[in-house]
Design goal:
Layout: H1 3-45, H2 56-65, H3 67-82, H4 84-95, H5 97-123, H6 125-131, H7 138-180, H8 183-197, H9 208-233
Helix pairs in contact: 1-3, 1-4, 1-9, 3-5, 4-5, 5-7, 6-7, 7-8, 8-9
């Protein structure tokens, strides 16, 4: 291959990597913004997540009072969670090798379980809420809601989702972020991953874990936005 041909091929690779990194920056910033907007709006119209500590009847009453808005914002959260998959895939393809495959796999799995957990508010809870208004079905509807909350919410969407999100964030921080971003950004990602991972302790009754997990997700959203800026401005391949 001639020198000119090699130069052209290298330029193509660099351009491809830049395109992937910029697309990853777009998906991760959208994910972060949807998460912030969704949680802020749900906190206002539904008192989420504090409302989940209330009795089932009160949760469903609050849901019905603002059903359209609650469903819309949980849908937005689900879209934001889903965007973690293309983010991981794009970073994985840029990184390549076994690490790249792990980045893609962890991000896709984290996105899938969180979408499953969040989607119950759009696909399943409306029907359960309607059934609860029928005195003959109230007890069964309440029991069904509690099972959905336990298995799709606490176990799948949250506990498994926390673990996978933390694992993806830690791996990304130790590899692609360390290679492309300032060292403090890789460190911040690891801290956020550790805080998010504490969420798996919430079902065990460790109440402090709710606060550390929340702090981790707030930091994670800010980390994603800062990382998106860095990746958008990156001029070199990983």
């Amino acid at each position: 291959m001639s020198t000119v041909a090699r130069s052209s091929a290298a330029t193509t690779v660099l351009a491809t990597d830049r395109a992937r990194l910029r697309l990853a920056a777009a998906t991760m910033s959208a994910a972060a913004l949807l998460a912030v907007a969704g949680f802020t709006a749900l906190g206002s119209v539904f008192e989420y997540p504090q409302v989940l500590q209330s009795p089932t009847a009160e949760i469903l009453d609050a849901f019905r009072a603002q059903q359209g808005a609650v469903m819309a914002w949980f849908g937005a959260l689900a879209v934001g969670a889903a965007l973690l998959a293309p983010t991981g895939i794009l970073l994985g393809r840029t990184t390549g090798g076994r690490t790249g495959r792990w980045l893609a796999g962890l991000a896709s799995a984290a996105a899938a379980v969180q979408v499953v957990g969040l989607s119950r508010w759009v696909l399943l809870v409306p029907g359960v809420s309607a059934d609860a208004l029928d005195p003959a079905r109230t007890a069964v509807a309440h029991a069904r809601f509690e099972q959905l909350h336990l298995w799709l919410g606490t176990v799948v969407g949250e506990t498994v989702g926390y673990a996978l999100t933390a694992a993806f964030t830690a791996l990304a921080s130790a590899t692609v972020v360390r290679a492309l971003a300032p060292r403090w950004m890789a460190g911040l990602g690891l801290v956020c991953a550790g805080l998010i991972a504490t969420g798996v302790l919430v079902p065990l009754g460790v109440h402090l874990a709710s606060l550390t997990n929340f702090a981790g997700y707030v930091g994670w959203c800010l980390w994603l936005l800062a990382l998106a800026v860095v990746l958008w401005r990156t001029d070199e391949s990983v």
